[in-house]
From TrEMBL:
PROSITE patterns: GNAT (PS51186). Pfam families: Acetyltransf_1. The keyword Transferase applies. Residues 1-160 form the N-acetyltransferase domain. It comes from Pseudoalteromonas rubra. GO terms for molecular function: acyltransferase activity, transferring groups other than amino-acyl groups. Keywords: Transferase. This is Acetyltransferase. InterPro entries: Acyl_CoA_acyltransferase (IPR016181), GNAT_dom (IPR000182), Mito_N-acetyltransferase (IPR052742).
Length: 160
């Protein structure tokens, strides 16, 4: 059900990606990003990108990459997106659990989310249930289209 994302998978995932970045509620990505730019960001500048599919339907995706280099290269970073029709069905939890297993296989010892928008309480609470801690909060770090400036959390989990 979860596999390495192909370029064809990304083409099917693109409407979800585009909708999420255009809403500007959870990701600090350019809302005018092209499909090519998005593919490079999500699939090429990472260790791996994964997709969760049910038949031809893309339910969600995540990328996994090093958060830093050198002496901090044991910490990885992930980003997750879930298709609108799949929300509330455990897809994000499944993707996160899979990402932790993959991270350990790749030699990472910890996972850090650099910017979890505080108003995204569904994500914040899910990550906390999965063992992530808020290790810092950046005041007014995210310009939300409806709420104005909101805080952003740095969340962390030791995997080993």
């Amino acid at each position: 059900m979860i596999r390495i994302m192909t370029q064809n998978d990304f083409q099917h995932f693109w409407p979800t990606f585009k909708e999420i970045i255009e809403q500007q509620e959870t990701y600090a990505f350019d809302p005018d990003m092209s499909q090519q730019q998005a593919y490079a960001l999500w699939c090429q500048k990472v260790d791996n990108a994964y997709v969760m599919a049910e038949g031809d339907e893309i339910l969600g995706s995540y990328y996994l990459k090093a958060n830093a280099m050198g002496p901090s290269n044991h910490i990885c970073n992930c980003g997750y997106m879930v298709a609108p029709q799949a929300r509330g069905k455990g897809v994000a939890r499944t993707l996160c659990e899979h990402s932790q297993s993959e991270a350990i296989k790749l030699g990472y010892r910890a996972m850090q989310f650099n910017s979890v928008v505080a108003s995204n309480q569904v994500a914040v609470q899910l990550w906390q249930r999965l063992g992530y801690q808020i290790i810092g909060t950046i005041p007014k770090a995210y310009r939300h289209p409806r709420l104005g400036f909101v805080d952003s959390h740095i969340m962390y989990k030791w995997l080993q």
